[in-house]
């Protein structure tokens, strides 16, 4: 996944720091590499602390490309769209009404990478996103910000870096640090970032095991939070919704060819919380939810 909730791991609008680094390491000046992702996921019925329950599913697609201009400079761009459908059953702590239903999210990103030497790389990723229920205009649903990072390759098996993200989310600004790592512990075992850093949070960590030429297994987790504008016809007209959680996942990936693969995920979301805020910011309702479970699938083709 790159989850916009969980698997922005399956896809994110900006080409991520980890992905751009991998691309740049294998591209020669003048070359372009691209990637297409199609994804779907579902969190099954999950109980709310204040009574009631919910479930949701998401479908999405992303396309991105990176062009290596010369030995030191590369530029990437991407676009991502997702639709998330929520179903509610008497959410007591949220007024016993469904606070939102369908959420549309479109994200555009650029990736500027500068590598003054083979072992040092700087990346800046500005992003703009429109996230809201159906009927919400672009001007009311826009979020924007960016990521900056620096990575150093200490050996062919170990790359480490740090980064920070700053995003404007309607009525507030959020900032967070994240770690960039790609550590090939053995020929088969690697510790890396599975999830792209972005508006929903930092990049997370995943321990990946290469079983053979076709199968790869992984276990990882991250922290995620995302916000979206509510439409004018719901119970919290013009307000803001939010979902926050710590997703932990297991992954099994199968490579059909060197450029085409499918990822299958089983995930659990811990410390979950949903929140709704009125348009005048005078009323905020929130409730935690039980550990949620779900499945996701991601199809990737690189070109």
UniProtKB/TrEMBL annotation:
This protein's source sits in the domain of life called Bacteria
Residues folding into a coiled coil are none
Pfam families xrefs: DUF6268
Q: Which residues form the DUF6268 domain?
A: 141-232
First and last residue of the signal peptide: 1-24
Q: Does the keyword Oxidoreductase apply?
A: no
- What this protein is called in its record is DUF6268 domain-containing protein
Native source species:
Orrella marina
């Amino acid at each position: 996944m790159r989850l916009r909730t969980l698997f922005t791991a399956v896809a994110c609008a900006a080409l991520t720091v980890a992905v751009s680094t991998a691309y740049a390491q294998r591209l020669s000046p003048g070359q372009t590499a691209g990637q297409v992702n199609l994804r779907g996921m579902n969190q099954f019925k999950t109980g709310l602390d204040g009574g009631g329950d919910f479930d949701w599913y998401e479908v999405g697609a992303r396309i991105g490309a990176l062009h290596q201009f010369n030995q030191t400079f590369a530029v990437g761009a991407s676009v991502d769209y997702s639709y998330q459908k929520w179903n509610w059953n008497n959410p007591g702590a949220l007024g016993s009404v469904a606070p939102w239903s369908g959420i549309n999210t479109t994200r555009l990103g650029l990736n500027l990478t500068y590598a003054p030497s083979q072992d040092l790389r700087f990346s800046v990723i500005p992003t703009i996103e429109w996230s809201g229920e159906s009927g919400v205009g672009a001007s009311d649903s826009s979020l924007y910000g960016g990521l900056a990072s620096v990575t150093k390759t200490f050996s062919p098996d170990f790359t480490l870096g740090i980064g920070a993200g700053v995003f404007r989310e309607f009525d507030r600004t959020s900032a967070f640090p994240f770690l960039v790592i790609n550590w090939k512990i053995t020929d088969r075992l690697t510790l890396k970032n599975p999830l792209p850093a972005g508006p929903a949070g930092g990049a997370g960590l995943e321990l990946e095991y290469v079983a053979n030429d076709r199968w790869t297994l992984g276990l990882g987790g991250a922290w995620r939070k995302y916000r979206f504008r509510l439409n004018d016809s719901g119970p919290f007209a013009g307000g803001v919704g939010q979902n926050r959680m710590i997703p932990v996942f297991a992954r099994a990936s199968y490579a059909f060819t060197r450029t085409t693969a499918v990822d299958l995920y089983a995930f659990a979301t811990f410390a979950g919380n949903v929140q709704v805020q009125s348009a005048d910011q005078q009323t905020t309702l929130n409730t935690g939810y039980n550990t949620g479970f779900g499945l996701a699938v991601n199809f990737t083709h690189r070109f």
